[in-house]
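User: structure tokens for this one?
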Amino acid sequence: ADSATAPELAVAPNGDAFAVWEQWDGVQHSIFACRYAAGEGWDAVERVETNDTHMATNPAVAVDGQGGAMVAWVQFDGMNFDLWSNRYVAGVGWGSPELAEDYADTVGTFSLDVDASGNATVAFWRYDGFHQVMCANRYVADEGWGSPEQIADGVGDDDYPSVGMDGAGNVVVVWQRYGGSLWDLWSNAYVAGEG
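Assistant:
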């Protein structure tokens, strides 16, 4: 067996958990997941991304309040690094991988969170030709991903986002930006129903 790297774990309040990691599948680096059911144990390992053309790396996972989870990862498309995702629905299993951003340039570090209803938000920087600009996209349960939006002013290099969501679907994203002599912290918020 090949080495598993970059593990991430998310645990639900009831003790269920999801582990995700990167591993060589014999052709490319792929993303795998395993679900832990409290009081029962680990399920079988499943591959959650299916593209063997280019490598997938850096997975992240978050759990919802309904026994589900969302996993996201970075995948090379031959020219740029894109952000992909897959959702686990309790009683159904993993779905099909979906593109979480559709910019025609490279995305960098990212952060993922999910609310109790299975809605998700991912924040990431993308290079716009001048700067690393912080962007975000929202996933609405049973509808899919929306369109990514720039959430920073684009006048500095943004990095290392962190996303937090509450039970009502409100979102706060924080990130760092180099201000010339020091690193500053920036933030932006999404209010459910308002934007």
